[in-house]
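Entry for the shared binder. Reason: the reviewer on the internal report wants the predicted structure included alongside the sequence.
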Amino acid sequence: MSSVCRFKIRCLWLQSWRLAHGSLSSVSVHNSSKYSTLGGDGEERYIQTTTIPTLHFQPGLPRLPIPKLELTCQRYLAALRPTVSEEQYRSTEAIVREFGNSGGEGDALNKRLIAKDRKNKHTSYITEPWFDMYLKARDPLVLNYNPFIAFKDDPQGITDQALRAANFIRSAVRFRAALWDKTLQPEVFHLNPTVSDNAFFKNAVRLVPGPLSWYAAALIWKAFPLDMSQYDRLFNSTRVPEIGKDCLLSFKNEAPKHLVVMRSGQFYSIDVVQEDGLAVPTETVCSQLRGILSDTTPAAQHHVGYLTGINRDKWAELRKELVSSEKNREAIRCIDSSMFVLCLDDSDPDNVTDLSHNMLHNHGQNRWFDKSFSLTVTKGARACINFEHAWGDGVAVLRLFNELYMDSHRRLTTCTAQSTMSGVNRLAFDLSESMKGAIEAAKKEIESNTKRLKINSLQYEKYGKNFLKKSKLSPDAILQLSIQIAYYRLYKGTVATYESCSTAAFKHGRTETIRSASMATKACAEAFEPDHPAGPEELMAMIKTAADYHSKLVREAAMGQGFDRHMFALRNLAASEQLPPLPIFEDSSYKSLSHIILSTSTLTSDSVLMGGFAPVTPDGYGIGYSVLDDWMGTQVSTYKTRDGADFVEKLETVFNDLYDVFNGNNFKQ
């Protein structure tokens, strides 16, 4: 191995140590913004400016590694062991050993994967199959794929729906301008911000040629640029249903100036960018939104948006029929090409549960799930982003989310103008009787599916991140351990668990799975049973062992050294080559580990109120959580086969019992 390769690996492992402590796990990346200090046009045009061009580091990003097959096999077995019987484990162990043998089927398949990767150095080995996984999926986007992230309430107390939406729009226009004109600051993970997040670093690194810039930033300043390839599809982008496999469309080259507003199932188009590229004045946009809110046009009897929430093949057939009319084709193109979709809701949920349902699905009402992202603002000015997942992951969305939140209240504009419909274009559809029937069927189907979903939440205020860090414990590891103990208390078992981890440290990285259920968490869960003899000291030692192992898993995942994506790529390659079924992928153990019962993800941001998603299996849990300075919050979604309220109740008791152990007390007495 060359000295350059050894250096790159050393730097990335150093980076991953910090990522393991909660900075990049799931969708928690955030690059601290330095807003533009330019006067006049520059400040109005861009949300921020940068010394280093936005994509300066992109050519030099390291490529996502393909793990060694031997290590993938070992990691797979380690993740499997706590979830199956000893007999099943031994059977699978023999299958895996055969698969991983030198010269065996797995070895030959892996060599072909490596050869294919070497021919595609412009991207990562996971990119194509990962896009295909999303785009070939025929399940509805609502509940199955689209998550939401909710903004905190406006810090200045704005409860005016049109005003808050207009301020978000102005910030989004300025974000898009900075991104497209490459004045948006590159996404960089700073190990030591006081050393690298400064003018000297920026002035020096911008002079280094792009292909070498990553090495310069990492070697001298221990600053690690992240992949920004997904940002290209943030705006003016959409997913289009097609039979068998959807496609992604981008209208960036046309530089559209409009966005589409939805209210009561009606669609309106307004221009939000002027001819000179500046945002349309906030007061103008606000008065137009007030005009839309005051519009006396009846709510749509047959809301076309419902069609975006059904089976993708069904929607593809209906869309083809829909756009056979020129009027409908123009309306659909206007939606597809819009900057994003703004959903103005008439409802005003007054509790966390109702708000979560509203932001995740709203039973399909007043929603268009195909857009890269939609901004929803309720009557009381609560707001969220709901995003389609095929084009990208949480890193790009959370960057946009944070910038919009900070800029919209930092540059808050009030609006005294009256409502107006000047400049507002209402989109209309010609719907045949058969299309109306299809929309009604879609509405009933979505409502039937979404009404099966239950959401329970917990806000726990006894301790949070500050307390855990003082105890030298990873907050993420403790939350994951708590989830394992809570599940064990309910079902006396350990099941397949998924925690998402970004691999944005690599070119075209997507995500890797952290398999949070381990033999260490299982032992801990057993020891926390009331009849187990372990006392506070022994329990504390077991907690630290489990937390340390979890941090190891996070480091490996952030480094692209998990096993899930590697095995996914191997299985995908075998299928594309039409090979006979391989025993490892036909084994019941692989199928059970792929059936995710506990699907988890965390959000760490000062801008986030909460986030949520549905379970990925009918008998699973969807668990979103946040660990803040002095409290912790969780959102647990379930279908009727599980009781989320019981899980939340058990989770709260686990938090209490852990707190006793942290303080040297015996909760079992």
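Summary line for the report: Residues 140-179+232-450 form a domain with the Chloramphenicol Acetyltransferase fold (CATH 3.30.559.70).
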